[in-house]
Amino acid sequence: MNKKMRVWLIALIFLNGFISLSLELVILRQLSFWVGSSPVITSIIMGAFLGFMSLGYWLGNSERVRIKYIPKILCLSFLFIAALALFAASFPFVTTYFALMYTAGITSGVVQTFIYSFVFLSVGPFLFGFNTTILSRLLQVRNKNNTGNIMAVDTIGSVMASMLTTLFLMPFLGVNYTVGLVILLGCVCALLSYRRAWVWIVTAILLAFGGYINSDYVQYSKYGILVNNSNSTISVAEYGDVRVLDMNRLAMSMYDTRDGRGAPYINFVNDNFIYTLPTDRPRKILVLGAGGFTAGLRDTFHEYTFVDIEPTLKDVSEKYFLKQNLGPNKKFIVQDASQFLKNTTEQFDIILLDVYSNSFQIPEGLITREFMSRIKSRVAPNGVVLMNMIESPSFGDAYTRVFDNTFHSVFTHNTSRQIVDNINPWSPDDIANVIYIYFNTENDGRIYTINKTPVIYDR
């Protein structure tokens, strides 16, 4: 085997590993828009990916796959992978898939993910494993001791994909252009494997169609998407005088241009806790989950710290949602909420948690007793903690009951629970905005009994 052919084979093995993991990460990101990113969802996708890839490893050793046909087989395989990336990872097609699922009455995220995995994550991952095996066979024709090198190169490709895709490509290029890059690399591998006129034609069609579908023009004109990175898919829609900020398919914030009012739960917080604050001194207000920065929007006196992991939120809100700059009393910190609480030494007069945006895409680390203990340690004396939850007002599901238990295991006294929306407690689907409130005031834990009831003095 000459040096040129060896370099060619190693390059294909590297790119095969790179494309496989990059595509997996992109798919995880695109599906999180619809079904979240919980360990259950991730395990289904990874399990399907690795399972079919293992089958490809095994069948790649079949004697029916003749050495002389391997370049053409590789070409067809990479072309199929490029097409898979186009149809399985491009936002318009993923959106169509989930629309069909809901039309068919399939609303469970777990079931939707299972079906998606077996439709789209069967042949593609199989081909990744199959490609690795037949490339290995070519590399070992003259040298039987290349197994370690092959595994190393394939793994290096996956490691590079893991780092570049999550740390650079999706954050800076955007998810849509990362999908386009995966399509491009699949086409490059096809051309490296088998250069024929028809291959050039097919790759040109795939690249043209993939480039158009994943262009910013289609993302914005068809879906109103302003940002599509590793964290969020963000759009702003206008309904008459009301603007709605959507993040990951969810209405995160609303703004009425006529009176500056926001969503009902934000109006409740503003009217009852923020706009009623005394003005003898500036109070410190911490908002975890910035949304559209509507909390305390009209307040120019008190000091606000907004914390969110999405770095584009401030720019998007100022340019497209609020269409006004935030005041100098409001600062924005890009950081995970739990890490911020861990690192800060400040205490805040009001802490508003607005990270629980729905009942199925739940940031699991932020509903734990440990996280709530961090919150409690950061609220100032006579301060207030407000948690906006989407849950059952009538405790109709296990999630609501367990969260309520968790909350009260930390905030044992001086708490209340405010239901903002209209409710139907007799419906199995009674979901509403529920605000948990904790007042950090002294409480000696006394109770009234038939034997001792000094209520006259307490009142």
Secondary structure blueprint with pairings:
Layout: H1 3-35, H2 39-59, H3 70-89, H4 91-103, H5 109-120, H6 123-139, H7 147-173, H8 175-193, H9 197-213, H10 216-223, E1 225-228, E2 233-239, E3 242-247, E4 250-256, H11 264-274, E5 284-288, E6 303-308, H12 313-321, E7 330-334, H13 337-343, E8 348-353, H14 369-377, E9 379-391, H15 398-410, E10 415-419, E11 432-439, H16 455-458
Parallel strand pairs: 5-6, 5-8, 6-7, 8-9
Antiparallel strand pairs: 1-2, 2-3, 3-4, 9-11, 10-11
Distance between the termini: 94 Å
- Measured on Cα atoms, how large is the radius of gyration? 27 Å
CATH class of the largest domain: Mainly Alpha
The global form is: elongated
Mean pLDDT: 89
Would you mind describing this structure in some detail?
The protein has about 450 residues and is α/β, with parallel strands linked by helices. The protein folds into two domains: about 5-225, Growth Hormone, Chain: A; about 235-440, Rossmann fold. It is built from 16 helices and eleven strands. The protein has helices at about 5-35, 40-60, 70-90, 90-105, 110-120, 125-140, 145-175, 175-195, 195-215, 215-225, 265-275, 315-320, 335-345, 370-375, 400-410, 455-459; strands at about 225-230, 235-240, 240-245, 250-255, 285-290, 305-310, 330-335, 350-355, 380-390, 415-420, 430-440. A seven-stranded mixed beta sheet has the order 7-6-5-8-9-11-10, sandwiched between helices. About 40% of the residues are buried. The mean pLDDT is about 90.
